[in-house]
Write a structure and sequence with these properties.
356 residues, alpha+beta
C-alpha cells in the first residue's frame, strides 16, 4: 500500500478516536491515583510494625485494611462515573472502517478492560476483591498503553508524511503508475526510467545541473512526487501526456480484448495496431517550443536530435512497462491494460521522424 493511503487513513482515525479522549484521561487519572495509593501503603508498611500479635501491630494491620477498603470504594465510584456504553459502538466502528492501520490491539484491550471493570463493580465477595482489583488495574493499564501506541503510530505517519511532503504541492510533478507491483526491482526500474527522462529533458531545456529529487516514493501503485528544474518539469508534463495519448490510440479494440483475456503470447502472437504516421520527435520539439516559446535551442543540432531519440526510447519504455498512469491526479493510458507489460516492439510502428 502507499504511504498516502496510510496518511489518509491515519487522518480519519485521528479524528475518530477523539471520542475516547475523555475516558482515557479519566482512566489515566485512576492509574495515577492507584500508583499513589500503592506508594502510600508501601510507606505505611515500611514505617509501621504490622507483624506479631501485639496491639500496635494489630492496629497498623487494621489501618492498612481500612485504607484499602476506602480506596476500593473510591475506585468503584470513579469507574461508575465513566460511561463506556457509547464507546462499545465506536470500538465496533474502528474494526469495520480501518484496514491499513492495526487497531485490533487497542479494540481488544478496550473490550477486555470493559468486561473486567464490570466484573469488579458487580463483585460483592471480599475474598475475590484483591484478585479482581489487580486484574482490573492491569486491564486498564493495558488499554491505555494500546491507545497510546495507536496514537504514537498515527503521529509517526504524520511526521513521516510531513518530512516526505505527502501533502499536496502544486509545484511538483506527481506520477502514479497504476500497475499493482510491490517488488523493489520494479520500483527501482521505474525510478530509473523517470530519472532518465528528466535528465534528457533537463539537458535540453534546463541547466543540466539541477538533479531530480524523488521527494516521495511509494510502492504498491508506484507514486513519485518529483521536484527539480522548473522548466524541465513543466516540459515533462506535456511530453508524458502526449506519449500516453498517442500510444494508447494505437491499440485496436481487438488487441485490447486479446490482452485482457491473456490470450497473447509474446513470441507467437502480435498486437494489431492502427496504422498511423506520427512524427514523435517532431512533436516533442513542437511541445517544447510551445511550453518555452523564448527558448534558443538549435533542434537541428545532431546532439539535440540524439537526445530526442533517447528521450523517445525512455518514454516508450515507461509506457510499455506501465500502460496506464496518473499524472498530477489525472489518468492517462488504457486502464484495462494497467496490469500488463506491452512489448516495446509493438510500439515501434509509430514513426519518429525528425522535424522537417
Amino acid at each position: 500500500m502507499n504511504l498516502y493511503d496510510f496518511y489518509e487513513e491515519a487522518s480519519r482515525l485521528n479524528e475518530n478516536i477523539k471520542v475516547f479522549e475523555n475516558e482515557i484521561f479519566s482512566l489515566q487519572e485512576i492509574i495515577s491515583s492507584d500508583i499513589s495509593f500503592v506508594e502510600d501503603i508501601s510507606k505505611f508498611v515500611l514505617n509501621n510494625n504490622i507483624t506479631g500479635s501485639d496491639t500496635p501491630a494489630y492496629n497498623a494491620s487494621r489501618e492498612v485494611k481500612i485504607k484499602i477498603k476506602s480506596y476500593h470504594k473510591l475506585l468503584r465510584r470513579e469507574l461508575r462515573n465513566i460511561d463506556f456504553t457509547d464507546r462499545i459502538f465506536e470500538i465496533s466502528n474502528l474494526h469495520r472502517n480501518y484496514k491499513l492501520i492495526n487497531v485490533d490491539k487497542f479494540t481488544q484491550s478496550y473490550l477486555i478492560m470493559c468486561k473486567q471493570i464490570n466484573l469488579f463493580l458487580r463483585n460483592i465477595d471480599e475474598n475475590l476483591l484483591a484478585d479482581l482489583y489487580s486484574e482490573t488495574i492491569s486491564a486498564i493499564s493495558e488499554a491505555i498503553s494500546e491507545y497510546e501506541n495507536m496514537k504514537f503510530n498515527i503521529e509517526s505517519i504524520f511526521k513521516i508524511s510531513t518530512t516526505l511532503n505527502v501533502v499536496n504541492n502544486d509545484k511538483s510533478l506527481k506520477i502514479r503508475l497504476l500497475k499493482e507491483d510491490n517488488s523493489l526491482d520494479k520500483l527501482i526500474e521505474n525510478m530509473t526510467t523517470i530519472n532518465n527522462i528528466y535528465n534528457i529533458v533537463n539537458s535540453i531545456v534546463g541547466d543540466g545541473k539541477e538533479k531530480l529529487e524523488f521527494r516521495r516514493v511509494e510502492s504498491g501503485t508506484f507514486l513519485a512526487d518529483l521536484i527539480g528544474n522548473v522548466d524541465t518539469l513543466v516540459v515533462m508534463l506535456p511530453l508524458l501526456t502526449f506519449t500516453y495519448k498517442i500510444y494508447s490510440e494505437q491499440f485496436s479494440p481487438k488487441a485490447k480484448l486479446e490482452i485482457e483475456a491473456k490470450k497473447l503470447e509474446n513470441k507467437d502472437k502480435k498486437i494489431e495496431l492502427i496504422s498511423k504516421e506520427i512524427k514523435a520527435r517532431g512533436e516533442y520539439i513542437r511541445l517544447i517550443k510551445e511550453v518555452i516559446p523564448d527558448n534558443k535551442i538549435d533542434f537541428s543540432n545532431q546532439d539535440i536530435q540524439n537526445k530526442l531519440l533517447n528521450l523517445e526510447v525512455n518514454l516508450k519504455k515507461l509506457y510499455a512497462d506501465n500502460p496506464c498512469i496518473d499524472i498530477n491526479n489525472k489518468e492517462y493510458g488504457v486502464s484495462s491494460l494497467k496490469d500488463n507489460v506491452i512489448p516495446i516492439k509493438f510500439l515501434d510502428t509509430v514513426d519518429s521522424d525528425k522535424e522537417d
